[in-house]
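It is worth pausing here to work through a concrete case rather than discussing structure prediction in the abstract. The textbook approach is simple: state the sequence, then state the predicted structure, then interpret. We follow exactly that order.
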Amino acid sequence: MQKSSLPNILQLALQQHASAADIDNDEELKTILTKLSELGQKVEDVKLKAKNNRQLKN
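Step two, the predicted structure:
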């Protein structure tokens, strides 16, 4: 099982609220979702680097 990063969890929560019409699916939401997606990718990159560094040390 793969753990989800906080940006991914927040992105999913916002998407669910938008689909349930709890919040407006407007330009501001789209900007936030884009930034969370970019942040999520950066988190995954750091995780991969850390994993590679651990493997090199062993």
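Step three, interpretation. The chain has a mean pLDDT of 91. The chain has one domain: 6-57.
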